[in-house]
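[job 4471] stage=fold_predict status=RUNNING
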Amino acid sequence: MRPDVLVWTILAAIVLVVCAVIYAGIKWGHRWAGLKADTPSDPFELGKQLAQGEVAWPVHSTWVVVLACLALLIAALLAGLVWREVSSRGSRVDASAASLGRGKDIIKLTAKTTKQAAHRLTIDAERCGPGIPIGRAVPGGQMLYGSWEDIHIDVWGTRTGKTTSRAIPALLAAPGAAIATSNKRDLLDATRDVRASTGTVWVFDPQGVAGETPTWWWNPLDTVNDERSAAELAEHFASAGRSLDAKTDAYFDPAAETLLANLFLAAAIDGRPITDCWTWLSRPADEAPADLLTQHGFPLKGEELRATMNTPDKQREGIFGTARQMASVLTHKAIARWVTRSGGRHELRAKFDPRAFARSNDTLYALSREGAGNASALVTALTAATTQAAEQYANASAGGRLPIPMVVCLDEAANVVRWRRLPEFASFFGSKGLVLMTILQSWSQGVRCWTEPGMKALWSASNIKVYGGGVSEGPFLEELSKLAGDYDKQTRSVNYGHGRRSVSHQLQRERILTVADLASLPPGRALVFASGARPALVRTVPWMDGKQAKAVRASIKAHEPVGQR
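[job 4471] inference complete, writing structure tokens
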């Protein structure tokens, strides 16, 4: 509003309030004093008669005016306190929300619409809830959700609240089985007791991130029954066996991956533990695995393995050496206990079954951290095996979907779950009832993990894209700025000439959110891009503001190390 218009509006409001108080003082003062004389109902006529002395002003009217002024003062103070509270929760970017999605623009993300989508998918919305919470729209304040067929991808910089505002609420909202990955224990501590109330909690912690002991085990070779499944398992080891910035060798890396796949297949079909593959890798001349492949109906794979063994010494050592690097995680005694029946066939530890998990309300936490001896290969293999078991269950279910959606929250995905084929699988996970949420620290982190085309494929396959700030990558932020769109800014200029004053107005197209705005997005705000909806600015809703905050605090208190409290 123009300053001069604002001043006149305030003056008019003051005059109206004064007239209203005087009018009320005369009317209620006369009633209070018990005066019988009628007073005009017309405020203008009443004011005229008061000025001419035709209408009395008893002391009671003065008291009415005093009380009215006190009431107005108290109301103004309360309004000021409310305004101060509201404005303290506001943000410097909130003004841009008026030019972004609101109201009908984001109706597909409201609880009513996502529940209708659940009904269409024959999902019990009363049991499962509206979907995965995203945040509250800045204009309007309505809560926004991703439906049970949406795929999420989040890019949040470090220390921006991605775990408290996205990962934890997603797990709390999971209606059935859930998978969560992380390189820290905070996600586990906050949700394990809440999730334990609905099913069994399985914590896969081969590196001791949360100090868990192996009370159960899982055999990675259970998923291997042919050449394709063996190659997929070898892929996980190959991707995790090198750093994100490492360069691959065009000959040795593919050859080592093929060698590893053949050894996995040989061990699987003969019922051997996966650690036997390392023994074979350390003995390049041992033809036992090749003989096993031939005996169990894979003669060509047996010959392929023999051909690798019979290559020139330096070439053979290069292939086997690269394969040993990929599988080095199997040499760690503490890690091996999680993937082998170390106590023999009569060991009492439970064995994790991905197929049974897919039909349950259980929760699987898979933890790994970067650095030497990281277990991301096993975390990736376990995550892939469990989601593929859920996909098979979905294929055999009505409508080709899981009866109850499964939430797969991959926090720190590029560091913990280096699943090479994730971008191509993500495109159809939603149609199977697998609600995938991939959380990254930056766009470039995803590129290092899946390459530029792979990251673009994963980004495009995701129906819900959330940017939570804390990133300073210019090209990525420029793309987000373009996607957020432009608005028409009206500018006003005043010119003087020949003794006259002229005012002109122009419309100028400007970005709703500039790269600088996005780079410095304040805490508590996130930008949401959803298929079929305009981009929207939301106020994040951390678990502390949710209905299960008390239960989460109790879980943290029960499991968080005493020294960190």
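[job 4471] summary: The chain has a mean pLDDT of 89.
[job 4471] exit 0
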